[in-house]
Amino acid sequence: MTKENIQITRYETVDDDLNSIICLHKLISKDSNLNEHLIYFDTNFKFYFRNVICNISTDYIYIIKIDNVLNGFIHFKIFENTIFLNNICLSKFCQGKGIGTFFLYNSIKLTFNENLINFELDVFVSNIKALKWYKKLGLRTVKKTIWMKISKKNHQLDFENSDDIYFSKDSNGFDSIFYKTNKIATIINNKTIIIHNLNYIDKIPSQLYILITNQDVTQLSKTHYKCSELETSTRMVGSLKEVLHNLNKLNA
Q1: Which of 63, 86, 120, 123 has a Cα at 20 to 30 A from 139?
Q2: CB–CB of 196/183 below 8 Å?
Q3: What is the full per-residue pLDDT of the chain (252 aa) written as tens digits?
Q4: Same domain, 39 and 151
């Protein structure tokens, strides 16, 4: 394989490659306990991602094609002076060949401007290879978030009925649970509920769903709920110029 066979382009217009990009999203959590529980697995995700593609001022999506076949994507979000690596995923064909390093380096170069100083990302602790790679790039961990599965100790307990609780779609089209006007949870494929506000957990139906959260469950574990750890996500940060420098060294 030569670099002449590789094309890296910004993805700004929805075309036939969209289905392949959606499928690649599902590989991101394939080796974690969150597999099938994240928004990538919801039937609405494809429609949501169409809108993300249109946010060209803040969302930079790149695809890599080898011999005209799509083999990966990168999604950056721009926040003030920071490039946030929202997602990167390559097909199995590309993994372990240095293509990811080449892809990330060139995608950052296409995005780079002098106002961008920092580089950040989140990665699952269970993804040992990725963690090792990001450390080589000069990134360091600044915080960790634990994803927990929640269940009731007494299965006979039911949720509290409330006229203030209702089910509706959020602004991105995902099935959600609201308390008054505040969104408190997202429903994934009528299977999983991701709880965003644990203050209202007693008002959320649990018997028919898998309940998960990345919120602090310290107080919750003292009640009639039991919590078990599913996955840990770590936030890593570093200097953008250092990341570029290290990527360039690895590409050499």
Answers
A1: 63
A2: yes
A3: 456 589 999 999 999 999 999 999 999 998 899 999 999 999 999 999 999 999 999 999 999 999 999 999 999 999 999 999 999 999 988 888 889 999 999 999 999 999 999 999 999 999 999 999 999 999 999 999 999 999 887 655 455 566 788 999 999 999 999 998 899 999 999 999 999 999 999 888 777 899 999 999 988 866 788 899 999 999 999 999 999 999 999 987
A4: no
Written as six digits, the tokens of 142 are: 């600044």
3-class secondary-structure state, position 20: helix
Total number of domains in the chain: 2
The amino acid at residue 26 is K
For residue 27, the enclosing domain spans 3-142+237-251
- Give yes or no: residues 224 and 178 share one domain: yes
22 and 97 fall within a common domain: yes
Answer yes or no: do 151 and 184 share one domain.
yes
Distance linking the first and last C-alpha atoms of the chain: 16
**What are 140's strand-pairing partners?**
237
